[in-house]
Amino acid sequence: MYKKHVDGRELDLSMSNLAEVSVKEIKALSKVDTIDLSCNNLEQLPEDFGDLADQVIRLDLSKNRLTHLPASFGRLRSLQHLDLRGNQLRLLPPSFAHLDRLRWLDLKDNDSLEPGLARAAGDCLDERGCRRCATNVVAHMRQVASGLERERQARLAEERAEAAKQQAREAAERTERREAKKQRRREQQQQQQQRRQNQADDGKGRHPGDDGDDSEEDAEQSRASASGGSRGRCCSGFVRLLLTVLALTLLALALVGLPMACVELAAHPIGDAPEGSARARLQPVCRWLLPRLPESAIEAAAGLLAQLQPFRAV
């Protein structure tokens, strides 16, 4: 259908009273890079219009009834020349910011243009104005797209924050339910223990005053035990001290008396002492001990014997 409107690399569908466009038929015309759809009754373009991305360089959509462009319009990356004058456009899609190769744009006679977009477009009264319009509008749409992206990210952040709060609330509710369940379980256990205690008390058949009497008796016994224990500890300490003194005395006597006895036996031999007597048993010990005693010990023992001699005579 469109093939008969092709002239070289241009598809001229102007003044064809078109209300819609077939992207599929245009794509079939692979050599076409210029499309003229001006002076028709187009109110919108199909959503797949961006499929012409690698094909369209010049596009004339002037003098139609377009109120908006499809979101896929920004995929026309090869587009360099675009005529949109005489439509009913108010906004351009954010994807318009991707038309990096656009060098010529006319937006005149779109009376409903958003004020910021209208200021960026300017008057487009001549070639230079249309070139400036293309540059300014693409830059403006980049700012718009950036702002929309920031808003989208902010919404996502709010949604994530709200989701996190919701999760926190649910976690808190779960924790509260668990704690309440544990508390009920503890209360039930306490009630069961109290019932068992009451049953045990009833089984003993004891009166409330009995416990007090038993407590007083136990306290008295404890005091008596403590007093007896203190006296026992004092007595045992005294006995240990007495035994220690006695042991030290015996040790001193042994250390002093044995050398003295040996010295006396050496000074006054006993001759033939009866067998089994104390002197007879002591004599071999003295013969063994005297050579091993230091001279100072022997002299000390002899001195003590000399001092004790008057008492022995008496």
TrEMBL record:
| Amino acid composition bias (Low complexity), ranges on this chain | 222-232
> InterPro entries attached here?
Leu-rich_rpt (IPR001611), Leu-rich_rpt_typical-subtyp (IPR003591), LRR_dom_sf (IPR032675), LRR_domain-containing (IPR050216)
Q: Does the keyword Phosphoprotein apply?
A: no
- Pfam families in UniProt: LRR_1, LRR_8
Q: Which UniProt keywords apply?
A: Leucine-rich repeat, Membrane, Repeat, Transmembrane, Transmembrane helix
Its GO CC terms are: cytoplasm
- The name under which this protein is listed is Leucine-rich repeat-containing protein 59
Q: Which organism is it from?
A: Macrostomum lignano
Q: Show the taxonomic lineage.
A: Eukaryota, Metazoa, Spiralia, Lophotrochozoa, Platyhelminthes
